Structure formats: structure tokens, C-alpha cells
Amino acid sequence: MKYLHTMIRVSNPDETIAFFNLLGLTEQGRMDNEKGRFTLIFLAAPGDESAQVELTHNWDESGYTGGRNFGHLAYRVENIYELCQKLMDNGITINRPPRDGHMAFVRTPDGISIELLQAGESLAPAEPWASMPNTGTW
């Protein structure tokens, strides 16, 4: 397992980037998604580029309340199906199953979202994951 990033939602990307620049982080990459109406901006400290902060700017948001600006922790895993099965066998709910063989979401006992991403290429869709529905927000 490899730590990837922590995601936070931001209302003003320029202000937030300026803040993180003051801390010493620099922009590593950016992706605009017209269809989904959001921008992802990745920042990291020089020399530690593999541990990133993902800024998510949802173009149509009108302010965040109640901690919804914190997104999730992300980890790259060797076999997403095996890990999700292990979690389920231990009573953990898979909130967003890895139907695509690539991505899943679970929550900590305190409700913090954890994104699991398959290392390398996505695994071929497989049951029971391919037909498993989402079980709430992730």
C-alpha cells in the first residue's frame, strides 16, 4: 500500500494555492473536468512530491459547511478486490465498491473517507463487485 494524497475542497483555488505556496508547496499538476464541472490541483513539498494535497474546486459550489471541505485520504493498493474482501470479512462496509476494478471508497469508524486505487492497470470487472451498489456517500 502506498499513500497518495489528501483531498480538500476549496472555494477559491487562487487563494488556497497562494496559502500553500507560503508553506512551501508547489503545484504538481492540474486537471479541469468540463463535464463534471470541477478542477483538481495537486500540490506537494519540494523533495516529497509523492505525498500530495489534492485541491478540488467544484465550480458551482456556494460555500462549505460542517466539515464537507475535507475530502478523503487516498492509497494505492496491490489488489483492490482482495483488500475490499478482507475489509468486508472484518465488518467494514464498502461504500463505493470497486466495480471498475480501479477505485473503491470505505470509511473509518469516525466517518473519514478512504479512497483505494488499484496499482497499475485496472483489474477486470469481477463479481460480486461488478453488480454491487453504492451504500451511501463516499
Layout of helices and strands, plus pairs?
Layout: E1 2-9, H1 13-23, E2 26-33, E3 38-44, E4 52-58, E5 70-77, H2 80-89, E6 94-96, E7 103-107, E8 113-118
Parallel strand pairs: 1-4, 5-8
Antiparallel strand pairs: 1-5, 2-3, 3-4, 6-7, 7-8
The CATH class of the largest domain: Alpha Beta
What is the CATH architecture annotation of the largest domain? Roll
Structural class: alpha+beta
Please count the beta strands (DSSP E, at least 2 residues each).
8
Largest sheet: 8 strands, mixed
Q: If you compute it from the alpha carbons, what radius of gyration comes out, rounded to the nearest whole angstrom?
A: 16 Å
Shape: globular
Number of domains: 2
Distance, first to last CA: 20 Å
Helicity, as a percent range: 10-25%
What is the third-level CATH name, the topology of the largest domain? 2,3-Dihydroxybiphenyl 1,2-Dioxygenase, domain 1
For this structure, the quaternary state is single chain
Strand content: 35-45%
Taking strands numbered 1, 2, ... along the chain, how are they ordered across the largest sheet? 2-3-4-1-5-8-7-6
